[in-house]
Design brief:
single chain; alpha+beta; 5-stranded mixed sheet; 3-stranded antiparallel sheet; 10 helices; 15 strands; 20% helix; elongated
Length: 435
């Protein structure tokens, strides 16, 4: 017995076996058996039951100390038919102790939630304008994280009747002239529906189209199309057109040159400009990536791109189509944004109360961007002139207070900054207007 003084051996009837001892702070003491019990010393064998169990578990186990001692105790109890049960006395100790380094715990690959709904990836081609009597066809690309079959594609017009089909291509042919709000879903075999995808469609008569092509003061938008197989025909000045590049449509609007006495006078010819901000779907197809911070719809404007990225996007479309594309100059942007108008705070006038009808800005954006073409266009038919995301120009000038504030907010370098115009989703009404 290692603790004879604690057993009071000089007393008659003193207990035999090991005596318990209080473990000093930060100490763990392991006994081969319980207090006042005797341990098998393993006579005739290489080791006692306790030593044998301890040696085996030291080689095998990476358990934390207390769990390790429990497994040793269980092994000893099993080998002695519960005649000997080891005892552990310990004080509080910090952290975790292992005789063997613990093995890393494999992180299981997360599985998609059961019956997660499908997700609409893109809709193409998106042609916001259509001529009366012509077919309006669009292809829906959707995927299901569970691999479930997508069995239905659903479209509603102006929140009314739903049209269902079992093919990803939907067609409409008998729409009267007017503005339509379309909402599309995909549905899987279990009936789970995707989040809706919203976009607008304008159906026009031939007479309306002719007005677009000849007007000198107001022009409605059209798409631009870039075809990967053959160069596009040169557009006709005075007409809107659709360019198709890499299978995506880009609506281009003819902007007539300024009239005499116009606020912007340094433009000598008319030009074309995109109907809306470049969407994430367009950018992703052309550039092969989508750096945007915001997600949820392929019709969201692409964000988090630099001036060089914007120029590279234009260059790729130029190379694909044979038509020359670049960013607008500051003068071109100003003339197009004001729709040839005079000096007002916004493209529609000076009333801040009307800004929410034309722009996503800090008061109504809910802290995020929104799909393009959901607000009212300016008189030339250009959408999101104010708010949503700001737009780069080709040239630069001393930055406006809005530009400086934006650079500081995102901790960007101030030197050699190209001009961006129009304000964004997080700008106030002050910075969303013209400087």
């Amino acid at each position: 017995n290692p603790f004879p003084s604690m057993l009071a051996e000089n007393r008659a009837g003193a207990a035999q076996g090991f005596a318990s001892i209080e473990a000093p702070s930060g100490t763990v003491i392991a006994f081969s058996t319980a207090p006042h019990q005797t341990a098998d010393d393993g006579a005739g064998r290489p080791n006692s039951p306790f030593s044998a169990a301890l040696a085996t578990r030291l080689r095998e186990s990476d358990e934390e100390l207390l769990a390790f001692m429990k497994s040793v105790s269980a092994k000893v109890a099993s080998s002695t038919s519960n005649a000997q049960i080891p005892w552990v006395n310990f004080s509080a100790y910090q952290g975790a102790f292992h005789f063997q380094p613990p093995k890393p715990i494999a992180t299981p690959t997360p599985l998609p939630p059961p019956n997660s709904p499908p997700v609409i990836v893109s809709i193409a081609p998106l042609q916001p304008r259509q001529i009366e009597g012509e077919a309006f066809d669009f292809q829906i690309q959707a995927q299901d994280l569970n691999g479930d079959a997508i069995t239905a594609y659903i479209c509603s017009i102006n929140g009314g009747q739903e049209y269902r089909g079992d093919h990803s291509k939907l067609s409409f042919r008998d729409l009267a002239p007017g503005e339509y709000q379309l909402r599309v879903w995909a549905e899987d075999v279990h009936g789970a529906k995707s989040e809706p995808f919203d976009f607008r469609l304008r159906v026009e008569t031939q007479a309306m189209l002719a007005t677009d092509q000849t007007s000198s003061s107001t022009t409605s938008p059209t798409d631009k199309t870039v075809d990967a197989s053959s160069p596009s025909a040169a557009p006709t000045p005075g007409s809107n057109y659709t360019e198709t590049a890499f299978g995506v449509n880009i609506r281009m609007i003819w902007i007539p040159k300024p009239t005499e006495g116009n606020l912007v006078s340094e433009i000598s010819t008319g030009f074309w400009i995109g109907e809306s901000e470049t969407t994430q779907a367009q950018y992703n197809v052309v550039m092969g990536n989508n750096p945007s911070r915001f997600s949820g719809s392929p019709e969201l404007p692409v964000d988090s791109v630099g001036w060089d990225d914007a120029m590279a996007f234009c260059q790729k479309i130029t190379n694909q189509t044979g038509n020359a594309y670049t960013l607008p100059s500051m003068a071109q942007w100003e003339h197009a944004a004001r729709a040839g108008g005079q000096k007002t705070k916004y493209c529609f006038g000076d009333s801040v109360e009307l800004l929410g009808e034309y722009a996503w800005y800090s008061d109504n954006s809910e802290g995020k961007t929104h799909p393009v073409r959901l607000k009212r266009p300016n008189a030339f038919g250009l959408y999101d002139i104010h708010g949503n995301v700001s737009e780069f120009c080709l040239d630069s000038k001393p930055m406006s207070p809005a530009d400086i504030q934006r650079m500081q907010r995102f901790n960007q370098k101030m030197e050699n900054r190209r001009t961006s115009r129009g304000g964004s989703w997080d700008d106030s009404s002050i910075f969303s207007g013209f400087p």
